Amino acid sequence: MKNLFDIRFTAQDPPVEDEVPPEDHDAVRMFEGVSNRENTPAPTWLQTTNQFIPAWRSQARDIYLRWSVADRALRSARQACTANYDPYDIAGIRPGEDGYQRRTLVSWSTVEAESAHEQAIDMVTRLALRDLVDMIEQSILQAHEIMLQSHPHILLEQPDTKGLRRLYERRFDNPEAWRKSWTKFIAKWRRDRSPNEISNVVQRYWSDARLFLPVGYEPATLDQINAFMAVILAVRDHIVNRSKHVNAKLAELSTQIDSPGFSYDCGDVFEVRGAQMELIEAFYAEYLEMLSLTLKAKAVVQG
Fold it and tell me: What is the pLDDT of residues 16-73, one digit of tens each?
């Protein structure tokens, strides 16, 4: 049985493959349009979602690889500071008598330069982790919206969507009015999600899409995925809000997953680590593999 959380990290900076597979641009198509070949049916939402998976995988991998390059460079530069006894000068542009000129802004000692590099390492990791979690969340929402495009009735059953429901029923008479109204509605749907809906973004998608786990995965896998997503979204929010300490919500969420890399206690200093980037990227790669198998299996069942 497969478990997405069997991954354990022991090295601080494991080797990263140099070669990145090119994006499969031909596999990615906009889900709102029609087929790019004449006399062929438009792809189903299952096929369209599967066509986006290579692009999502590549985007996450690119964020991870660029972070790894920056992290290694900063660590090497920090180590070089210890062997250099000359002042560490940083220049900038300032106005002078002859116009703007380059001047020394700081002249750090070895200890000061090392400290600055350590802060830069932490900053880069926080920004990269934020971007990676943002990208993962957006891909799950995009997959959800691809499904809703084919099955809007899931949202149109709400009491406050009578007008939109009427447009849907008459969509063949005025497709442009329906498209514009639906696009506006989906944008509002994204904005107005409650904190609980944000934390359960994976669970909501799989429930609405009526997806099932592929053969070989443990029954608790989806609960584990949802719990892990809730944790990394809370970590992302700490970064965005520049939180200095762990709040009660993140501490509680972290107790619900079996991942030592994301163990937090309420009130502790909030920290991010490179191993967290590794775990998130590996988790998402495995999730996309599972999603692809699920979509293909559902297509077979429906066929």
Answer: 344 434 444 443 333 333 334 445 566 899 999 999 999 999 999 999 999 999 999 9
Which residue's entry shows tokens 């750090």? 108
Rounded Cα–Cα distance for residues 68 and 14 (Å): 10
Residue 7 pLDDT > 50, yes or no? no
Question: Which amino acid is residue 74, in one-letter code?
Answer: L
| Cβ pair 165, 156 in contact under 8 A | yes
Q: What is the pLDDT of residue 105?
A: 95
Cβ–Cβ under 8 Å, residues 254 and 267: no
Q: Which among 149, 139, 127, 138 has a CA at the least distance from the CA of 236?
A: 127
C-alpha–C-alpha distance, residues 18 and 41, integer Å: 39
- Using the structure block, give the residue that is written with the tokens 């900053």: 123
Could you tell me the residue ranges of all domains in the chain?
A: 43-302
Is 298 exposed, middle or buried, given 0-12, 13-18 or 19+ CB atoms closer than 10 A? middle
Task: Mark residue 242 as left, alpha or beta (left: phi above 0; alpha: psi -120 to 50; beta: remaining).
Answer: left
The answer to whether residue 279 scores a pLDDT higher than 50 is yes
What's the pTM?
0.82
Can you read off the two tokens belonging to residue 102? 């380059």
CA–CA gap between residue 99 and residue 23 (Å, rounded): 47
Amino acid letter at 138? Q
As a whole-number percent, the residues of the chain with pLDDT over 90 amount to 63
Interatomic CA distance for residues 229 and 234, integer angstroms: 8
Question: Which uninterrupted H or E stretch holds 135?
Answer: helix 110-150
Beta strand ranges found along the chain (DSSP E):
88-96, 99-108
The one-letter amino acid code at 213 reads L
Phi and psi dihedrals of 88, rounded to 5?
-95, 100
